[in-house]
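Contributing new records

If you add data, match the layout below exactly. Sequence lines come first and carry their own label; structure lines follow with theirs. Keep one chain per record. Anything else will be rejected by the validation script.
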Amino acid sequence: MECVLAFALMWKDEKYLIQVENHLKRFYGDFILGSEVFEPPFSKYYYEEMGKPLFKKFIATDFLTTHTCLAGIKKHTIFIEDKYRIKGKRTVNIDPILVDIEKVIVATTKYRGNRVKIDENLYMEIELWFHNKKFTPFPWTYIDYSQNSTFFENVRKKLKKMKNRG
């Protein structure tokens, strides 16, 4: 099943975000949609490593891929995070996201009981499910995904147009 590749990007200093975005564009194409920038809820986990305040946004690319590529893409984003580290600390956190007609999937290195292993130390989680003409969260869905469901619905619309064009 074809999916739009999107990313959740979290950063403190915009200059590093711009470098990472340029890197992502070289591999995954143009950004076709972006959410508003927001301060992520429950981001204290990242404060020690990245500092504060932190900012986050979702971006969608024009890159179409499949579910089977998610582990490889996550490994690549870990490589990019490592490339832009300063004194061993990440400057930008990158989570790859797949948006298909029915769901929004995110890749992560953190295990929880509802996540499915896709490779060594890599997991995927369905964050949103398209039901009753909108993306609906699950009990485990991150708040920022729920709050940006309209963004993901717009990505879904773009995907449908891209598929119709062939």
